């Protein structure tokens, strides 16, 4: 009898509503899986339409085009003699479900709707879909005519069932169901299911990959089995980067690992595994065997097909491997770089422009672009024809081959140091040296004339001229003069992004990159509509602490020695006058808190769900060695005052790469009011009462 089953999973760089491109990538994955001997192919969640369709799921067009793509797959000879498992939205009895459609040889075997929907953080599946709540129940689904014409079927099974092939039994999970406390694989395993599949739309978060891997391995560690996970990869149209990590696990150990970050649009893993290893593993787990005798059985869809060959004694099977995780610094180097590449090629722009100040944040952003250039050159060297074709379109040269990251960087990356009378020569030199080392096309300009012109208009109209506080001006005057500089930089950034290539005799425009980190956004330490207002921001979800570690990583791995002086310099906005030619203004003094403190506030506010009083209660214990309760109270009050005063800035925050779970992104992730009672009178009174008691 057959023992060795060959199965395939994949990570596909799908794009929301790109039905043509999505179909082509699905076909490529099936072709690769078949050529490598697989008899079953699993794809990512909602791969036909792309996961990030959002409110387009409401449109009948999305359903129609998904079925049109499914018809193309069903009728193609490429999908013959392999079980194909694809994801798409399906309307059943006027209710929309997130489904897997499993088919073989022009026949749909089962449509399996998602049971547990993801609805936290960046996920809003309950907005568009309904969970299937009828456990172990199957209904008839009436196929649309375009599918009936291909399959000859009028109805197919729809619901919570498993597939019984000639040699084994397969059960389906979809993304969130693996993370749920009552995951279906538990009872499916007790009911004799040997192969579990999971189609995911799981996005990157720093330090998250190990959690997903541990969940997959633990799914089969307790009761044996084979677990296959597919995931989307890349930027499919918004702030998220889906980070691949397709994998296959057996009996609690990883046997195949896909990449977390790469520029390959299609990545396929194939593993051949011995079913007898599953059966022998389960044989001695008496507690599971006893529980199995009581389990409520799943409906089985019989499939006249085998995942193994009848004579497979000599077929080699896969052995366990050790999963290699990236460090957080590697994740920052690779994840946002891949996201930038997807955004650049899909937006059909000619490159990026970055206001480079010579500080840590803009320098980290520049390093991420440089890392992207490294990834492009490496992909081309490894024979990636898609990346080569995209690079040629971007630089408008059909014969171009990117080989040197610095040379490619010169073509696609413009940096711009915008000096004012408040800028130091040190930051100017640091920006210039870093630009030389990464190879960007660098511009030096001075904004003083524009600042004087704007302030001059104000003075002419009002008869008053504002002054910086060091010259006797009020706080209002001081802040307004800083904001004028910051906003002029934004206007100039967009002007140069649109016309710099024109001045160089080159076609196209540039995307403007922002460089405000997650902590500054949380605190509101930025000018609304300044040069943090950009097209996209690759570091907007990353903390200052992680960015400093990333800078150190770049010094060591990219040999960017210019970063050493940037690392050692205190962060400063350089918007107030110099004192004796030296910078007197620093970020942490301006903010009234350190970046380390900001990270703690951010995690407590978002991840620990702490309001002012709860945050105070947690911090008096965390900081008991360094602060009195009254000092803690003062710090917490100051943070919440500043956070609430500046929350309105989050409504216009530049779309940022999502990397951190305490991001204040107002678009989808962190939904809060933006007009607060900033006195927090009741909350702060509770804190004061506790301080007095202590």
UniProtKB/TrEMBL annotation:
SUPFAM superfamilies reported in the protein's UniProt record: Adenine nucleotide alpha hydrolases-like, Carbon-nitrogen hydrolase
EC class of the enzyme, as a word: ligase
Gene Ontology, cellular component aspect: cytosol
Annotated ranges, domain CN hydrolase: 5-275
GO biological processes: 'de novo' NAD+ biosynthetic process from L-tryptophan
CDD domains reported for this sequence: GAT_Gln-NAD-synth (cd07570), NAD_synthase (cd00553)
Enzyme nomenclature, EC number: 6.3.5.1
Subunit architecture: Homohexamer.
Family from the record: In the C-terminal section; belongs to the NAD synthetase family.
PANTHER family listed in its UniProt record: GLUTAMINE-DEPENDENT NAD(+) SYNTHETASE, NH 3 /GLUTAMINE-DEPENDENT NAD + SYNTHETASE
Protein's name in the database: Glutamine-dependent NAD(+) synthetase
Protein's organism: Spizaetus tyrannus
Underlying gene: Nadsyn1
